[in-house]
Amino acid sequence: MEDKDKKIESLHLKLIPYFEKYGILLLLVLMILVMHILQPDVFLSWRNVTNVFKQISWQSMLALGVFMVIVTAGIDLSVGSIMMLSLMILAVVAKAGAPWFIVVLTPLIAGFLCGLFNGLGITLLRMPHPFIMTLGTLYIFRGAGNLISGGTPISGFTDEVRYLGHGRIDLQWLGLEKSQYLPVSLVLIAIVYIIFWIFLNKSKTGKWIYAIGGNPNAARASGINVNKILIIVYSLCGFLSGIGALILAGRTDSGYPNAGLQSELDAIAACIIGGASFFGGRGTVLGVFAGVMIMGILRNGLNLMDVSSFWQQVLIGSIIVLAVYIDVLRRDIGTRK
Amino acid sequence: MSSISNPLLEAKGITKYFGTITALENVNLKVHAGECLGVVGDNGAGKSTLMKVLSGLYKPSAGSLFFQGKEEILESPRDSQNLGLEMVYQDLALAGNLPIGENIFLGREPTKNLGFLKLLDFNKIKELTNAHLDKLKINVKSADQKVEELSGGQRQAVAIARSTAFNAKVVIMDEPTAALAIKEVGKVLDLINSLKKTGVGVIVISHRMDDIFTVCDRVMALFQGTNFAEASLSNTSRDEVIGWIMGKK
Question: For B117-157, where are the E strands, in sequence order?
């Protein structure tokens, strides 16, 4: 009898890490199943699935950036504004007639510099919390974006500039139909997420990002230059927002003043749904991806069912609370009492 | 013993100001190989400040540090670690969200090259961790266990293991038993004694006379930021040391 109890307990202990790591994927699979049952003809069609991926493409970049920041126990409220400013700079540079390879680089550089600005502000100005610095730059960057564009939309980019957001990879050579293409943005998401997964899990800097979130004093005492790592994290977050701007430019063919409005909140929500802890040091790249997908599928599914966008807001808010509550329960099981 | 004449670590005339506050004034300290020095003093006597100066976390306003007879200027904890001067902090300075092995090697992780990428070598971390924990006779379930899952005594043991993983010559411990359950205190003190036997110089800051009188060879008292008294353990008593802490000789 005792042996049996022990076996159950050890199995229990062995399963917990997997549950912690992949529990969120269960929720995602469950949602896909429910949507499939509710919309059997449409939801899992090629067209709709690629649509979901196209819709989450730029949000997934912002969420990944914000995720890294949250791992350090920080927050970045400015990612939506960084994306908008980067997009506006791209639009202005494109309209000025710059060659496409320069136009493509501008949002990446602009995003990186905005992030660097955040990082330097937080560390050098010794802001009491990143919330304050990035709340400030949320206004600053959006204001700057409107200043350089005159507050009006700027439209019309070349195909090269639009490739990452709008491009299609033809799959007819696989015997598929012309409508069954792969969006370039989906490939881009996969590549960027894999690179950042390797960076966060397999590199020294990535490990230090987690260590800073776990205990900044421990990191400092270990000789890690915490400020330098934080500056790198915020810069990379800005850079990812810049990639988001490039994708959005492709999707909408336009730079517009409301681009990315409130998208910082979506990004934070995706991280939280995906299991990242606001106290830092916890969360996975896979979780963030699941979080982005859950939000994307929810919006898509509710649109398919013609549910009003007001209900979408209510439901997304509820999912945030529910996901964190599941996380609380999960931790209860996971920690020794 | 030649080591008596050549201290491993010596601090001379250390002074530290924080704005207008004088935390340390002209403080001297030395520790030899295989010796344990106890540092006692009331709250605010300057013990922790002195240790942070020795570990390179604070720069002294005046005074100098000599390591193996050579003057050294410590710009950061990394500098002191490179010399073989390690610190075990009172708040343990461990990242609870990381496994034991990654805590022990935090900031100094072994890596392997994969093409142009330099990736963490998790197998090596595990291997070195297990070997090191075995050497110190520290028992944990696995090097992969997260630190937040450990008991206070196990955490302290990991912190000590961490400080000695890179051929430390001097280990400074700030209140090593303060946060521990009584049954765990003995294990940590045993660990300190076995460190001494390997020739490491140990500095223990503690309020607990039991700790001082179990592991230390010499004790010095700080009072209001200055050297107040010092004696070898055989020449003093608990009551006398407690008197020093309160500023009575």
Answer: 117-120
Q: Does the residue A337 lie in any domain?
A: no
- Name the residue range of residue A218's domain: 25-325
Cβ burial, residue B226 (10 Å; 0-12/13-18/19+):
middle
Contact A63, A242 (CB under 8 A): no
Whether the CB of B119 is below 8 Å from some CB of chain A: the reply is: yes
User: By the CB < 8 Å criterion, does B160 face chain A?
Assistant: no
Reply yes or no on whether the pLDDT at A23 is more than 80: no
CATH number, residue A157: 1.10.3470
Domain B2-245 has CATH 1.20.81.30: no
- A304 Cβ partners below 8 Å, 6+ apart? A35, A39, A42, A43, A48
**Which of B201, B210, B198 is closest to B241 using CA atoms?**
B210
Across the interface, whether the CB atoms of B93 and A223 are under 8 A apart is answered: no
The 10s digit of each residue's pLDDT in B95-142 is 999 999 999 999 889 999 988 889 999 999 999 999 999 888 888 888
Q: What is the pLDDT of residue A3?
A: 58
Q: Which of B22, B23, B1, B26 is nearest to B11 (CA)?
A: B26
Query: What is the distance, to the nearest Å, from the Cα of residue A118 to the centroid of all Cα atoms in its chain?
Result: 18
Q: Domain tally for chain A?
A: 1
Quick one: which of A122, A282, A289 has its CA closest to A210?
A282
Using 50, 70 and 90 to split pLDDT, how confident is the model at B2?
A: very low
Task: Tell me whether residues B102 and A207 touch, CB distance under 8 A.
Answer: yes
What percent of chain B has a predicted confidence (pLDDT) above 70? 97
With contacts defined as CB-CB under 8 Å, which chain B residues touch A198?
A: 117, 119
Residue B36 three-state SS: strand
Q: CB distance from A210 to chain B under 8 Å?
A: yes
- Asked if A9 and A3 count as a contact pair (C-beta separation under 8 A), the reply is no
Tell me the residues of chain A between 146 and 205 that have a Cβ less than 8 Å away from chain B.
198, 202-204
- Distance, in Å, from the CA atom of B13 to the CA atom of A261, rounded to the nearest integer, reads 59
Query: What is the pLDDT at residue B154?
Result: 87
A293 assigned to some structural domain: yes
* Residues of chain A found within 8 Å of residue B94, distances taken between Cβ atoms: 215, 218
User: Is A305 contained in some domain?
Assistant: yes
Which pTM does this prediction carry? 0.87
Count of beta carbons in the 10 Å neighbourhood of residue A93: 20
| A183 within 8 A of B57, measured Cβ to Cβ | no
**Residue A113, C-beta contacts closer than 8 angstroms, at least 6 positions apart:** A238
Bridge-based pairing state of the strands B170-174 and B201-205: parallel
- Asked if the C-beta of A126 comes within 8 angstroms of chain B's C-beta atoms, the answer is no
Please compute the mean of the pLDDT values over residues A218-238 and round it to a whole number. 94
Give yes or no for residue B5 having a pLDDT over 80.
no
Question: Which residues sit opposite B17 in a β-bridge?
Answer: B22
Identify all chain B residues contacting A204, using CB atoms and an 8 Å cutoff: 109, 111, 118, 120
pLDDT at position A329, please?
Answer: 77
